[in-house]
Design goal:
homodimer, alpha/beta, 8-stranded mixed sheet, 12 helices, globular
Chain lengths: 408, 408
């Protein structure tokens, strides 16, 4: 008898009809002789409704009270889903994160799980019950209600799967799995059958947006296989697992595109040691995440520094960068919001050469200029003009033979 | 420094504007050098929305899951109200019934409080914080979420006031207090300044519907003064407290009218010992509450038995009564739904005579027939025709001089 953890997002339980559909899936899994633990998010737009109520009261809510407020969303889902399972004649019991023993630190609205006490859960499973757990939430050792921040329900699911040594953690969402690239950009994008945690991390953080990095990191750490699939159909999804030898045969697993970054260039910085440190230290102190950084010596004793940050942080970052630029006696600052970051990812790169060459050729053939390049062991990222992004993705997708079904 | 417990019902916190209004009241009480504990119900129609969601899933929900579902309503209120108080610059902290130590038995949806652990509450009060507690809910010793049934938030407030030895428990509602009778029936109805727990119990159970009997019984048991007033104005309300000598000066405190009962008469029952017991035993076994009972011998060896039950239980009761009537060889059954129960209440009756005479005279003067009569130490109830009820209340209200402001 295998133990399976399933997680259903808000769009999968947005109303009673959807909840009943999810209940049928769960019961089907149970009747295949599995023990089943289910993690659920808040119904559809519940969180937005609650946020709107809070906004009408205060523009600066206490994080503790926000957690108190928002954690009700998942509590509604778990009770309704449990009722729907009862209606199908199976045993089921719901728990809040508070009840089920998900212990977190005290960082309200963005807490980290520090412990998972599975006693209550195991007891319920022993009674042959399906267990429905509220995602996204936990409690501190002082019995304060906390929430886990963005992607928190995935994290709950992966953490429970790890603690219970589940066979698999199934993430139900509204897409069929992880694709070689965004199907809205390239119609020939193919669903990927299997990929490694590392590849998923690169694809997720680069904008695939199916799962948050935190959850994948935890899955990697505890070796929890993750299966991403669509709650609304029966198509096979994507298995994310530990790297296996045959994965390396594929050079490039997927192409991610991120249009949420902006590029800042600081021109004519005196070329002395410690100058870059000065600028990035100030940004770090203000919690502004810098992604790519390029330094390029132009004339004799001057250099240009370019870096990218999230567009959403631009307004906050700009005065800080200006101040820093002034401090290091830079000549000028340039902002470019019309950029896109395109990344090719694949663990095959480790053992194969020529990926960069192939990538640059594909772009050159389409006369697409590369603005910045950064590389890691399993990925190459380029910053290009935003308006060329779609064409670039299509060209690269074709170049790496991703248009044909990619058999792992 | 006095400790005051306040309770605000759902209509007082139905939207952000109302919540802000309540926050201002609370802060005002706090700034008069009081410690303040506040109990809140769910926002306006939240409970109905949740019940409707559940109804779309199942017609037979598990009580445990209903408690899980419904308890979210108050959790939303407490967090929003706490934010509103922060916005006014005062310290405040919210707790669920689960967190605050309201321990109940395991009767989901209608649990009884068995213990109140005030440690968390006292700690927060010591830090000079206003404490906002979710009404209507608690937890079992096994950490299951329970709710307290109808009027549960009042019960939470009274129980906390008792456990904390509060100076007063203030119940904020949408009426100005307890009236000598329903102002919709008698325009001259007067607000009562002070009444005893016992009188309130009779008035509440007879239809005044401001507070549930359970809460008043607990207040009586622990001698918690209750102050009922309107959350939307500043008018003085009604103080419900232990009987004091001067209360006895007033003969009749108020007149309650209840149109929710129906009368069943079983005709021609053999006049033998144990016959009434047979009928009422069967009703009790099926959990049908019988209110008034009258037995009247008509012809030699036969008798008629009349009794009243809630109209809402009529459909359930009827086949049972028919069966019982058949069993005791009764001749016939008659149902009358067009009745009203009118009660005059006052602890003054204990030491004064002539109340019954005055009451019957008032009705006789208006040619209103009395169908059944029952009396207790501090009340007299009559069943009359429903269509005469309004006229009867007005006549009695005048007869007992309640039209003039009743000075206690």
């Amino acid at each position: 008898m295998a133990l399976i953890v399933q997680k259903y997002g808000g769009s999968s339980v947005k109303d009673p009809a959807h909840i009943k559909n999810v209940a049928r899936r769960i019961v089907r899994t149970k009747r295949k002789k599995n023990k089943v633990v289910v993690v659920v998010s808040a119904l559809g737009d519940t969180t937005d409704i609650l946020l709107d109520l809070a906004e009408q009261i205060t523009h600066d809510p206490s994080n503790r009270e926000m957690d108190m407020l928002l954690s009700t969303g998942e509590q509604v889902s778990v009770s309704l889903l449990t009722m729907a399972i009862h209606e199908l004649g199976e045993r089921a019991v719901s728990f809040t994160g508070y009840q089920v023993g998900i212990v977190t630190d005290t960082s309200h609205t963005n807490a980290r799980i520090v412990d998972v006490n599975t006693k209550k859960l195991s007891n319920a499973l022993k009674k042959n019950s399906i267990v429905i757990v509220a995602g996204f939430q936990g409690k501190t050792i002082d019995e304060e209600i906390t929430t886990l921040g963005r992607g928190g329900s995935d994290l709950t699911a992966v953490a429970l799967a790890a603690a219970l040594k589940a066979k698999r953690c199934e993430i139900y969402t509204d897409v069929d799995g992880v694709f070689t690239t965004d199907p809205r950009i390239e119609k020939q994008a193919q669903k990927i059958d299997t990929l490694s945690y590392e590849e998923m991390l690169e694809l997720a953080s680069l904008g695939a947006q199916i799962m948050q990095s935190r959850s994948i990191e935890v899955a990697d750490k505890y070796n929890v296989p993750i299966y991403v699939c669509n709650s609304k159909n029966e198509k096979p999804g994507t298995l994310i697992t530990r790297e296996v030898k045959k994965m390396e045969k594929v050079l490039v697993r997927g192409i991610a595109l991120n249009r949420n970054e902006a590029k800042i260039t600081v021109f004519g910085v005196p070329d002395r040691p410690g100058i870059a440190a000065t600028i990035f230290k100030i940004l770090a102190e203000r919690n502004i995440n810098v992604d790519m950084i390029i330094q390029n010596k132009t004339v004799s004793n001057r250099t240009d520094i370019s870096f990218t940050i999230m567009k959403s942080e631009l307004r906050k970052a700009l005065p800080i960068v200006k101040k820093a630029a002034h401090k290091v006696k830079a000549k000028n600052i340039l902002i470019d919001e019309n950029i896109a970051k395109l990344s090719v990812v694949g663990i095959g790169m480790r053992s194969h050469t020529g990926v960069a060459f192939k990538l640059f050729s594909a772009l050159a053939e389409k006369k697409i200029n590369i603005d910045m390049i950064s590389t890691s062991e399993i990925k190459i990222s380029c910053i290009i003009a935003s308006k060329k992004a779609r064409q670039a993705v299509q060209a690269i997708h074709k170049k790496f033979n991703l248009n044909k079904k990619n058999k792992d």
